[in-house]
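Action item from last meeting closed. Structure (232 res):
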């Protein structure tokens, strides 16, 4: 069976999983690949990792197209994703309406689960927000940093901390069993990121990859995208 290989930000993992059967029915192909911090995925493509398709932030994909690593005509927006808070399913939801609320919520947590603060979209934003709130040094010892948001959320689900909290992209929270989406970040701290798909210039299966882009972005998949945490 032909396999279409993907390099993708973790934000799209749940959506790709949800489309795997439809893609197989339409093309007879399976999907494989890596999901992780967008910066690392882009660098893997630059280093020659085989991939037919990439799903990364709009900004990164534009750079890869400029570098002639992605076919410009194939690029299509998948949807916007909010960076949000997460708690274990059994814990009370945390609602933050202001920067002060967020500062208090993070200060009261005894473990804060986040993705890579240097290479991931959400992780970079968390680091920026902690500085903005003036609590980066105060909570540094409580940060639990993982390679990507999906791993951070799985670790949050099994955390033995008393009052843990997580922060990553909403799609990664929704796709993880044992945790719950607890709400968006407040005004002044929010981040909404557009994710975009494109066929790579060195794709072994460009036709099938283009079919997957069409599935990811098609109007008839809007409900699935919304359930997975993507906004139009």
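Sequence:
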């Amino acid at each position: 069976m032909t396999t279409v290989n993907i390099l993708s930000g973790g934000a799209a993992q749940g959506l790709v999983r949800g489309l795997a059967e439809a893609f197989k029915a339409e093309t007879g192909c399976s999907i494989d690949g890596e999901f992780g911090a967008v910066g690392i995925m882009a660098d893997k493509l630059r280093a020659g990792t085989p991939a037919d398709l990439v799903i990364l932030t709009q900004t990164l994909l534009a750079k890869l197209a400029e570098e002639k690593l992605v076919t410009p005509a194939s690029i299509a927006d998948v949807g916007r994703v909010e960076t949000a808070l997460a708690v274990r399913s059994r814990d009370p939801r945390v609602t933050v309406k202001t920067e002060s609320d967020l500062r208090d919520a993070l200060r009261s947590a005894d473990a804060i689960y986040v993705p890579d603060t240097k290479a991931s979209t959400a992780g970079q934003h968390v680091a920026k927000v902690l500085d903005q709130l003036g609590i980066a040094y105060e909570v540094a010892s409580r940060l639990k940093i993982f390679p990507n948001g999906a791993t951070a959320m799985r670790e949050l689900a099994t955390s033995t901390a008393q009052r843990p909290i997580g922060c990553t992209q909403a799609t990664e929270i929704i796709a993880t069993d044992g945790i719950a989406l607890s709400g968006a970040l407040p005004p002044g701290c929010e981040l909404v990121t557009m994710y975009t798909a494109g066929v790579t210039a060195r794709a072994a299966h460009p036709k099938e990859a283009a079919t997957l882009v069409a599935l990811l972005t098609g109007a008839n998949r809007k409900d699935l995208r919304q359930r997975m945490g993507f906004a139009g």
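Note appended to the action item: The two ends are 33 Å apart (CA to CA).
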